[in-house]
Design goal:
The complex is a heterodimer of chains A (775) and B (620). Chain A contains 25 helices and 15 strands. Chain A has helices at residues 8-22, 24-33, 61-69, 126-129, 193-208, 227-231, 241-250, 316-331, 343-346, 350-362, 369-377, 379-386, 388-408, 423-435, 442-454, 460-464, 478-492, 501-510, 524-534, 557-560, 587-590, 611-616, 632-645, 667-671, 684-710, and strands at 85-96, 103-112, 115-120, 141-143, 147-154, 157-160, 173-178, 183-187, 255-258, 274-277, 293-297, 303-308, 337-342, 412-417, 618-621. In chain A, the strands form three sheets. Chain A has an eight-stranded antiparallel sheet with strand order 4-3-2-1-8-7-5-6, with helices on one face. Chain A has a five-stranded mixed sheet with strand order 11-12-14-13-15. In chain A, β1 and β2 (103-112) form a beta hairpin. Chain A is globular, with a radius of gyration of 28 Å. Chain A starts with 7 loop residues before the first helix and ends in a 65-residue tail after the last helix. Chain B is built from 20 helices and 16 strands. In chain B, the strands form four sheets. Chain B has a seven-stranded antiparallel sheet with strand order 6-5-4-3-9-8-7, with helices on one face. In chain B, β8 and β9 (135-140) form a beta hairpin. Classes of the chains: A alpha+beta (775), B alpha+beta (620). The interface between A and B is large, with 115 and 124 residues.
Chain lengths: 775, 620
């Protein structure tokens, strides 16, 4: 196994681990008896290099504790079930940016199959007292999958570490940039050269080298699935025909459930089960491509569909014919009207998205205070030049267009792109959130992510680059882009959402926690085949990773409170219906199937619909203004304005404002680790905690009243518990705006004074030199 | 997770339709807003065919015109009638459903610009350029010459009364409010609150008749060791006689915030023994520190350039133990230009694709950042360094007022209350002679006057930035700040008239006009922030990074109907508070009932365990 030689302590540990392994079968049995699907794990060892299969380990937390007592002074990280230490080094200095001066803490740096972790020599109680503690990794842990880039400081120069650079020279300092925007700096100069070599190579190897899927910790992790999750699975997983039937029933869809792909005979890129327009008959003729897949049905009857392109190898004629059939099928769903949109033409490519995000995130990966204030000067223009906010705006805008077609014009909508699993997912899920209040509840949102993204075969593994592949083409933070768009909606219409921005932030982090199966695969077929292959005891069924929706894996129920938005305006309980009773606003259209057909002006994918189709259908491109001099934004402006003038119903249609000042940076996600931006005693968290306090007080009072009502006797004296315990933020006056994420350790209450102010503002015109008083 | 009964337990706390009226009125009557806040005090003028026009006390209709088109940049042309009174301009649209109106005090007009006969029909068209970030364009169906004799002329007359030798409407407005806002600020009471006079600081009457300095207040706090005679000598060494006097003193460390104008050092490096002694005395008054910080708010280049004109800054040779810091804040002209650019960027339309770089090019937020950063450094020296500070710019009535008042807000929670904030404005801005008349140009048609500058607006913007960062630390809400700004321009109240305390007394402003605080304090519920928590000795250190500064959309872009704010969080909080109060009442009632019953059958279940209530999750 990777570098353990020469470190007696680690050898000791390894022995212990092996002894643990021997106990494993017993455990395994009991686990199975208990009805859990906890399974043995085979560890693919430290990556591609090692030739022979390494040890298998299972260390239970109790054993770790035992071990902890043996070596007096040295500390060991609390390992997760299935976690193995590869290498470690001591003493390492970790720089801390607290109190604005660069100081450090000495400790030991470990690299395990799950994370890079730093264990301070000092006693730290902070971690214990945290309100919002992640059970899987703490503030000094970096899950391997979460590492974005590693830089090395070589003689005052910062270099990006790549696999090839590792060989000979060792940097004095390593800087780790994480995908959740944390920045770690470790000084290696205090360590023995040998140890430096080991830890540096170890970290570089495990974090940066391309690896195979089975090396991902999720396959070694043997956390017991929480009984809670087993009991009540509120999130609809869309893994069974029933889930789909239920969803069709909920939205009153008149489509057809396809079960023919149960064994992936139609296509490996399609879900096991999915829904298509009822007119499609010969499924196999589609060759798994260009099938319009149902997403959601409007109460009027029209529906939203998404599709990949038909196979390109065909003759042009066949291609056209295929398109016609596709459009025809969708149009038949409701009133023979359909609008189509080729998203790969009207939205940025996944490569654009990747490049823009790479620029954008750099503004938040800040090594020191000087850099911070320097970048503060050109903040707005750099933000603009990254284009990230503009991409968010474009996606939201496209989704609003889709919503307009469905809600205002009551036409069917078909969105397409090459694979049909990237921007199609973004747009269709956003449109559904705007249209259907169910998806604005926590369970509804999770079900939506399952439906459109997980069951919908978004290629998470490739897009998130979990395996650190060098090939850049297919990596793109598409799912994050979706979360960003949702955040804009949450930010603008907070009372419409049951979940909070903290929930979205945590979800965006969880993508890079290699414990959950949710974001680990490229498709349903991929998941199933990998799970089958990795299962050590083939006959005992497939391996299963916990789903990310089982939040108890990461957070206790106290912390999970932060997922709920205290501003949420709950629906009045008597109304069971999900949708608000709309009156069909466009009845005129019902009798007008012959509305003038508009040929798309821009050269596009669907430009040559056949004549027969033209006569029959009202096929339109969604972006009507594409060719016109008006900005595309003008198209939906009217729709937004008329919506804005109606009374706001948080349980009805919801549209975002897309004007310049309205699209903002997701501050909680991006600046939570930057001490320069933390507001001591302020920020939106101050408001949220006040709301939570007040809400729980109100609920306490209600409960008191309910209990009174229930026990008619009402004899004993209940004192209303106004001092709330769980959600008591008596100190909310002093909480930082980064709460509940970063904690400033030393609460010395000092202001953050910017440096280099004058650089910011060189007013060149002669106004600056004028006297205040006009003479 | 706890589940019982919680799903619907909050159902009625927050009906989703609460803001319905809010929103709809907001969008429809897009341009009549805060102006109608004084509705309770309005009478109504009825004119057949024109509908109702709410009139204030002493407000008289001067002229009216029918068939006027208001070219709204957001919804397009709207036809209606226009009425001009001695206080306001009122436009009622008649061809649109729902009917909307424009109602603006003539005081906000900066200039009226005629647009040449652009149309062949000879329609007369003009643009009203306003001080509150909007332009209004009207087209009259009448030929230009007839227009001259009518509304347009009346408009010009009443919009710029000062230029027409008339008095401002504030002097006619005679509304009686339950509270007299002129009594809000009593300097002696305010200094007493701060523990002054004490063994080191005395209250001097040297400026009782504004002889020492005509732009300073009558009541001054100075070190006990300095005589009035010495103060007179100092006044000849400080620009405009504005000597260093105390603004605020730290209740514990006795570190003081002192303000003044620049010393008249000149090119030859003049010195003043008395000035040096005064600054030494200021330092000595604070036993905790043997240092004094002098904050010169100007960029050092400008401070040095002032030497050419006799001004300058304190040399560290002459002032032992004093450290001079420049805060790099630009002058009034730069600020005026910056706001002008900002208006171009936000009104009427926002260019989406270049919004951020356009915003950056105005430098508005950078100026805000510099001012906040300056105030932060001052507050830090006083709070963390326990050191006294002297703050000045050139004359000590613009940047100095911004810096001291912002530092005071950071340091003293009293100034974050509604009344405390009024005292702060009265003290640091009005009594210390911020030249409101010059900077705003009340009733003056000379719109190119180089003395105009949005200094006070900038201060309010900085306060707003702080309220954003500390949503629970201020007793007042955003509406309070917007109302103050609206009445800065409206000329309805006397508060912001004239340039100094002396002038206001001479004009008998407190006798002849109504204070804006009378109006505000008579309807406090409009201005209260429900989230407010009073932390007595809680110092606020805001974050001044541009990343945390925002453009104040609900002020600068409030005329754009698309930028209407979403549901205010406060609204929901108020609902919750009301709900809690209601429930508490019910619980108390039940308890009383139970207590009565227990009293009758007392011993029955005395031993029953008092079940503690399980802490509740917010939802689920």
């Amino acid at each position: 196994c990777f570098p353990t030689k020469g470190n007696p302590r680690l050898l000791v540990q390894r022995e212990r681990e092996e002894s643990c392994v021997r106990t494993l079968p017993d455990f395994h049995l009991t686990a199975r008896e208990a009805g859990y699907c906890g399974t043995m794990l085979s560890l693919g060892s430290g990556g591609a290099k090692s030739s022979k299969p390494s040890f298998v380990s299972y260390v239970t937390p109790e054993e770790i504790k035992l071990e902890k007592d043996l070596p007096k002074k040295e500390k060991h990280p609390d390992l997760l079930p299935g976690e193995v230490v590869f290498c470690s080094a001591n003493p390492i200095l970790k720089y801390t940016q607290d109190d604005l001066s660069q100081r450090g803490i000495f400790g030991t740096l470990f690299c395990t199959n799950f994370r890079v972790t730093f264990l301070s020599d000092e006693l730290t109680q902070e971690e214990k007292s945290k309100t919002f503690k992640n059970k899987l990794y703490g503030e000094n842990d970096i899950p391997l999958m979460c590492v974005d880039h590693i830089y090395g400081a070589y003689d005052e120069k910062r270099k990006l570490i790549t696999g090839s650079l590792v060989k000979n020279k060792y940097p004095s300092k390593i800087i780790i940039h994480c995908k959740d925007l944390r920045v770690f700096q470790f000084c290696l100069t205090y360590t023995k050269e040998e140890d430096t070599k080991k830890i540096f190579q170890g970290i570089a190897h495990h974090c940066l080298e391309e690896k195979s899927l089975k090396c991902i910790f999720a396959f070694s992790y043997a956390g017991t699935p929480s009984p809670e999750m087993q009991r009540k699975r509120e999130t609809i997983m869309f893994e069974s025909p029933e889930d789909w039937t239920q969803e069709m029933k909920r939205t009153k869809a008149k489509c057809r459930l396809v079960t023919e792909n149960e064994n992936f005979e139609l296509s490996q890129r399609l879900p096991k089960y999915f829904v298509i327009p009822s007119t499609i008959e010969d499924l196999f003729s589609y060759q798994g491509k260009g099938l319009p897949i149902w997403c959601w049905s409007h109460h009027s009857g029209c529906a939203l569909f998404k599709a990949s392109f038909p196979p390109m190898t065909q003759e042009e004629v066949d291609f056209q014919k295929h398109l016609d059939t596709m459009i025809n099928a969708v149009a038949h769903n409701y009133l023979y009207s359909v609008k189509t949109e080729d998203l790969s033409e009207s939205l940025p490519t996944i490569l654009d998205i990747q490049q823009s995000y790479n620029k954008f995130k750099q503004f938040f990966l800040i090594d020191n205070s000087t850099d911070f204030w320097l970048s503060d000067v050109k903040w707005f223009s750099s933000l603009e030049s990254s284009g990230w906010l503009d991409i968010i705006r474009q996606c939201l805008h496209k989704a609003v267009e889709v919503v307009e077609c469905i809600d205002k014009d009551n036409t069917n909508v078909l969105v397409t792109e090459e694979e049909g699993t990237d921007l199609c997912c973004v747009i269709s899920s956003l449109a559904q959130i705007m249209l259907d209040p169910y998806y604005r509840t926590l369970m509804g949102f999770q079900s939506l992510v399952q439906k459109e993204w997980v069951a919908g075969c978004h290629a998470f593994l490739d897009r998130c680059n979990h395996l650190h592949q060098k090939d850049k083409e297919c990596h793109s933070p598409v799912f994050l882009l979706f979360l960003e768009c949702v955040w804009q909606l949450v930010h603008q219409h907070s009372p419409a959402f049951q979940f909070s921005e903290t929930y979205l932030t945590v979800l965006s982090d969880s993508v890079h926690v290699p414990v959950f199966g949710t974001f680990l695969f490229n498709s349903a077929h991929h998941r199933e085949s990998v799970m089958k292959a990795e299962s050590p005891l083939a006959q005992s069924g497939t391996l299963s990773c916990p789903t990310v929706w089982d939040w108890s894996v990461q957070f206790d129920s106290k912390a999970q409170n932060f997922f709920f938005n205290p501003l949420y305006s709950e629906k009045v309980k008597h109304e069971k219906t999900v949708r608000k009773p709309h009156k069909p606003k466009h009845q005129r259209q019902l009798s007008l199937p012959s509305t003038a057909f508009k040929t798309p002006t821009k050269k596009g994918f669907f430009k040559e619909e056949t004549d027969s189709l033209k006569k029959m259908l009202r096929v339109k491109r969604i972006s009507r203004w594409m060719g016109s001099p008006d900005s595309p934004m003008a198209a939906t402006r009217e729709f937004y304005e008329s919506w804005q003038q109606r009374p706001l119903d948080y349980h009805g249609l919801l549209l975002p404002n897309l004007d310049g000042p309205a699209v903002r940076v997701w501050m909680q996600r991006y600046v939570r680790w930057i001490p320069e931006v933390h507001i001591q005693g302020g920020g939106s968290m101050a408001v949220m905690t006040k709301f939570m306090e007040l809400l729980s007080q109100v609920q306490d009072l209600k409960r008191v009243l309910e209990q009174r009502d229930a026990s008619q006797a009402a004899k004993f004296d209940h004192r209303p518990h106004l001092q709330h315990r769980l959600l008591s933020f008596g100190s909310s006056g002093r909480l930082s705006s980064s709460f509940p994420f970063a904690y400033s350790r030393n609460r010395s209450f000092k202001p953050i004074i910017p440096t280099g102010l004058m650089q910011s503002l060189m007013v060149t015109d002669n106004l600056a030199s004028q006297e205040d008083e006009a003479s | 997770m706890e589940e019982s009964g919680s799903v619907d337990s909050v159902e009625s706390l927050c009906s989703s339709t609460t803001t319905r009226s809010d929103r709809s009125s907001g969008t429809k009557v897009s341009d009549t807003e805060l102006r109608s806040k004084g509705r309770a005090f309005e009478k109504v003028y009825k004119d057949p065919g024109k509908g109702e026009l709410p009139l204030l006390e002493e407000e008289l209709v001067q002229d009216a015109a029918k068939d006027v088109t208001y070219i709204c940049p957001f919804i397009g042309p709207a036809r209606g009638s226009l009425t001009v009174t001695n206080y306001r301009l009122f436009f009622r649209c008649t061809d649109r459903e729902p009917v909307f109106g424009l109602d603006l005090p003539l005081g906000v007009l900066s200039r009226v610009e005629k647009i040449g006969a652009a149309t062949s029909r000879g329609d007369a068209s003009y643009v009203l350029v306003c001080k509150d970030m909007r332009n209004l364009r009207f087209v009259h169906k009448e030929p230009e010459d007839s227009l001259k004799k009518s509304v347009f002329e009346v408009l010009m007359k009443f919009a710029f009364p000062v230029s027409n030798n008339m008095s401002l409407f504030a002097f006619e407005y005679k509304q009686v409010f339950p509270e007299n806002g002129w009594r809000v600020y009593d300097p002696l009471a305010e200094y007493k609150r701060q523990g002054l006079p004490n063994e080191s600081w005395r209250i001097s009457k040297v400026n009782d008749h504004y002889e020492l300095c005509d732009s300073y207040p009558a009541v001054l706090v100075v070190p006990v060791t300095i005589t009035d005679e010495e103060l007179r000598r100092v006044s000849s060494f400080r620009a405009k006689g504005r000597i260093p006097v105390l603004s605020w003193i730290h209740p514990e460390s006795q570190a003081a915030v002192v303000r003044s104008s620049q010393p008249m050092v000149g090119q030859n490096g003049r010195r003043s023994k008395e000035d040096e002694k005064l600054l030494q005395a200021i330092m000595d008054a604070n036993a905790q520190s043997h240092k004094l910080f002098i904050f010169d708010s100007r960029p050092s280049v400008n401070a040095a350039a002032n030497k050419m004109k006799g001004g300058g800054y304190e040399s560290e040779d002459a002032y032992q133990n004093a450290e001079l810091v420049f805060l790099d804040i630009h002058n009034i002209h730069v600020m005026r230009e910056s706001l002008r650019k900002l208006k171009d960027v936000v009104y009427p339309n926002i260019e989406e694709s270049h919004w951020l770089s356009n915003l950056e090019s105005t430098h508005w937020l950078e100026h805000i950042k510099l001012i906040l950063a300056g105030a932060l450094r001052i507050a830090d020296k006083v709070e963390s360094g326990k050191t006294s500070v002297v703050v000045h710019c050139s004359d000590g009535w613009d940047r100095t007022a911004q810096l001291t008042s912002l530092a005071l807000i950071m340091l003293d929670s009293h100034y974050r209350t509604i009344r405390g904030f009024q005292i702060l404005v009265e003290k640091e801005w009005l009594s210390f002679g911020h030249r409101f008349q010059q900077r705003v140009g009340h009733g003056d048609k000379n719109h190119t006057d180089a003395d105009r500058s949005p200094i006070f607006l900038q201060f309010i913007d900085c306060v707003w930035q702080m309220t954003r960062q500390f949503p629970a630390a201020f007793e007042f809400n955003e509406n309070f700040l917007i109302t103050i700004l609206d009445h800065l321009y409206s000329c309805l109240f006397g508060t912001f008239l004239c340039n100094s305390e002396q002038q206001r007394l001479k004009e008998e402003v407190p006798k002849r006009t109504v204070s804006v605080w009378s109006f505000v304090n008579s309807q406090l519920e409009e201005f209260v922030n429900p989230l407010y928590v009073h932390y007595p000795s809680h110092v606020l250190f805001p974050t001044v990074g541009i990343r945390h500064l925002q453009l104040w959309v609900s002020y600068y872009i409030r005329w754009n109907p698309r930028m209407r704010p979403q549901e205010p969080v406060h609204q929901r909080y108020k609902e919750l508070l009301a709900k809690r109060a209601e429930l508490q009442k019910r619980v108390e009632e039940l308890q009383r009932e139970a207590a009565n019953r227990t009293a009758s059958s007392s011993s029955e279940r005395a031993g029953s365990p008092t079940r503690s209530i399980t802490p509740v999750q917010t939802f689920v």
